[in-house]
Amino acid sequence: MSTTSTGETHRRRPRVKHRRRRAVAALALAMTMALTSATAAVQFGAPWQMGAGDRNHVFVGDGGYQRYQVHVPPRHDGASALPVVMAIHGCGMTGFGWNSMKATTQFNRLADREGFIVVYPTQRLLRSAVNCWNSTEPREQHRGSGEPALLAGVARQVVEDYGADPRRVHVVGASSGAGAAVILAATYPDVFATVTSVAGGEYGLNQVRPDDPGATPPEYTARQAWVPPLVANRLVAHWTAVHDLVDDGLLNDSLAVAEETHHVPAASGGHAYTRTTRTAAGGAMVIESYLVDGMGHAWPGPFGSGMFTDEAGPDASALAWDFASRYALS
User: Are 160 and 295 in the same domain?
Assistant: First the structure.
């Protein structure tokens, strides 16, 4: 009896352990699948969050791949070459998933009314701690490699796939996405006609000299909940110089840029703001800037939803499109 019992015990124990191993393996698989599904939902949104005209794509280039979502307005018929606006999210955001640039900017509703295509790239997981674009990294600031090459590749692919107008491709960005947008404008001026930076800095912000008394601290966003006016002023000066150089190769104010400033007082619970335009002698406005009083590190506008929106600010999405709609590559 004892021998039989012991024998049965020896025969059964491996089966019990085997069943436990299978149970643990099944549990681990279920947890992995659940984690993967949850991560995908956060990063790329749930299927039911896609609206009419939304389509997901992947661009594959020499430097890797880039996921993005395209929103096509109702008037897209495949025959008319529509403009394109690429909207690049900031840190702690996604392109079209959780806390997305899509929800923050509400560009889709504007695109449906005005007739342009919107592109929302989303940062790849694990490329940064909080889903930032690496716009302060020198390796990500050059043409032909890294994030700039991938994002420019996305823009070109959208033009090809949707028959869009290659002369009217524009880029806007928020925070680290604003940094990426500025880099794209500097490194791919043959792809992007205009750039809009919201709560971002100048090209090569990380390379600002620490011994320069007017320098912007490269880590200002880590220490402050808002972007100081100095950053916006430097960005305006940066692009004014670029336009001057492009004109005749010299920093000589050959464009005779005239500056005009208009202050809009606070009204109906909104923030006061200052609008400044810089117009060349020929009449073309080359730069438009807004300094918003009392706004945090956010995308301003009355329609956005998300963690980084400010409904009391001017409608940045409408302002960006109004500016972009006037220009095309020559």
Answer: yes
